[in-house]
Amino acid sequence: MAQPLLPVEDARARILASLHTTPAETVPLSTAFGRVLAEEAIARRTQPPADLSAMDGYAVKAADVTSVPASLKVVGEAPAGGSYADELKSGEAIRIFTGAPLPRGADTIIIQEVTTRDGDTVTVAEAARKGQHVRTCGLDFRTGDAGMPPGRKLSPADIAFAAAMNLSTLSVHKRPVIAFFSTGDELVAPGTEPGPNQIVSANNDGLAALILEAGGIPLDLGIVPDDLEAIRKAADSAREADMLVTLGGASVGEHDLVREALAPLGLDVDFWKIAMRPGKPLMYGWLGKLPLLGLPGNPVSALVCAALFLKPAISRLQGGDSALHTTLARLGTALPANGPREDYMRAGFDHISDELPVATPAEIQDSSMLSVLSRAGCLVIRPPHASPAKAGEIVTVLPLRA
Predict the structure, then answer these.
(1) Cβ distance 182 to 303 under 8 Å?
(2) C-alpha to C-alpha distance for 381 and 307, rounded to whole angstroms
(3) 338 contacts: CB under 8 Å, gap ≥ 6
(4) Residues 6+ apart with CB under 8 A from 12
(5) CATH no., domain 52-135
């Protein structure tokens, strides 16, 4: 009995539910960008460490400038990186610069633009409230504060935040190693002159780039011929990886040998057909403890399926956000009714100021055309049996570029 086609969401949920996060490792802050936190980042200092001036001007007592103009005696200076040692008295002012600590007794900063200076006397033209232009101690964070939670993918701002918390290292999940190989006697590597009935393989390099983009470490096992023993040997060499991906050989043709080759090694198949286009022949299972994702051999189908299933899996493996971040757009062209499979249409993605972006599916959606996928900015997601859609209708899209 033929296996029914599995809905895309069900397939993705089953893959993600089966995966476990990689162990943690401690890395220098300088190499932590793009990694996923395994433990909370805890502040090791208070920031600011004292009440600081937020502006260039004069440190005063607010009570001395409630009525203006007010003339005060300038008794010292507090540069950034320095301080005024004595306590400020009533009727006095300290020349102060941005980032300098407030002198004892001062509670307000008067910006220099509203003052005039004559020797040791400064005249204040505008009244100020207590605490004006003062960055209070601990305004940003305090020692012991949890700065960032586990599961956070670290951005440049996060790295700067960790540095400000006086952290030189962070605990992050190890980047998952994703081993992969293509199958097919007809395939040759890029830069090779194909022989009769051969084609240049685009899958390995494209998939390696996607794995890097998702935060994984690609382990390219090359192109494997249509030979049972060769496929077994390639799979065996991936045993220490965090996931094995095969490209091709997971359909129903007589030369699709992956399942036949790996069955003696203990391959346990969860599912192998998805109700989607492109990419129906997609397999998922386990080779012992190693999760195995079988992508279609067609390069467009392989990359679309990798975006939908492999990228979320890599995020889950390293403890990050595994959700698909779709958005809304307006159709740039009318579309006919969809068939029984969820369709992922390669489309241009034009951003318009103050409006929803416009997604315009390519006129030809043939899954052999990598040029169309290369130009696409998003995938328009059409549910099974979707009704005809008019230009301007709102649709859900999956952006393909940052």
Answers:
(1) no
(2) 13
(3) 382, 383, 384, 385, 386
(4) 308, 309, 312, 324
(5) 2.170.190.11
- 8-22+175-317 and 327-399: same fold? no
Q: Which residues pair with 389 in a beta bridge?
A: 335
Domain ranges of the chain: 8-22+175-317, 24-41+144-173, 52-135, 327-399
pTM of the model: 0.88
| CATH 2.40.340.10 applies to domain 327-399 | yes
**Strand stretches in 228-385, DSSP E:** 243-247, 267-271, 276-277, 283-287, 290-295, 327-331, 342-350, 358-361, 378-382
Q: What is the CATH code of the structural domain delimited by 24-41+144-173?
A: 3.90.105.10
Neighbours of 374 (CB within 10 A): 12
Q: Tell me how far apart the alpha carbons of residues 99 and 54 are, in angstroms, rounded to a whole number.
A: 6
Contact 167, 44 (CB under 8 A): yes
- The stretches of 74-174 forming alpha helices (DSSP H) are 156-164
Count CB neighbours of 366 within 10 A: 11
Query: Residue 124: CA atoms inside 13 Å, Cβ hemisphere, count?
Result: 29
CB atoms within 10 A of CB 82: 12
Reported confidence tier of residue 83, pLDDT bands at 50, 70, 90: confident
Q: Is the pLDDT of residue 284 over 60?
A: yes
CB 53 within 8 A of CB 100: yes
What does the alpha-carbon distance between residue 88 and residue 175 come to, in Å, rounded to a whole number?
55
Local confidence band at 81 (pLDDT 50, 70, 90 cut-offs): confident
Tell me which DSSP letter residue 390 carries.
-
Q: Which two tokens stand for residue 272?
A: 């192998």
What's 8-22+175-317's CATH class?
Answer: alpha beta
**Mean of pLDDT values over 325-345:** 97
Give the whole-angstrom CA distance, residue 377 versus residue 325.
Answer: 14
